[in-house]
Specification:
By secondary structure, the chain is of the alpha+beta class. The protein has one domain: GMP Synthetase, Chain A, domain 3 (2-Layer Sandwich). Helix content is about 50%, strand content about 20%. A three-stranded mixed β-sheet has the order 1-2-3. The radius of gyration is 16 Å and the shape is globular.
């Protein structure tokens, strides 16, 4: 099974996920959205992800786990905010507006 799919399956098994978005570009990176991350510190969230990937049921080898570069753990409200920022950027691009750099 492809590594990205194995990691996705492990995350979905560990968390009640709203969204799991992963890419494999010389390593796995992406994000997972779950209410289980609400009101948790970033360190705790990353520990939760690490635990999800190291349990025997995840069936990830040590080499496969080393290929996981970074997975951001987002609460639903954080993901909604991220999406709203992306939508603003898309609307600006569609209208020909570009972000200007200030010196």
């Amino acid at each position: 099974m492809e590594l990205r799919k194995k990691v996705e399956r492990a995350l979905k098994a560990a968390f009640d996920t709203d969204v799991v978005e992963l890419v494999n570009d010389d390593g796995i990176s992406g994000f997972v959205v779950s209410a289980m991350f609400d009101e948790r510190e970033m360190f705790d969230r990353q520990s939760m992800i690490e635990s999800a990937l190291t349990v025997p049921t995840a069936k990830l080898t040590p080499d496969e786990r080393r290929s996981v570069l970074f997975i951001a753990a987002l609460a639903p409200a954080e993901h909604a905010f991220k999406q709203s920022l992306e939508n603003v950027g898309r609307r600006r691009s569609a209208n020909g507006q570009h972000r200007r750099r200030t010196p």
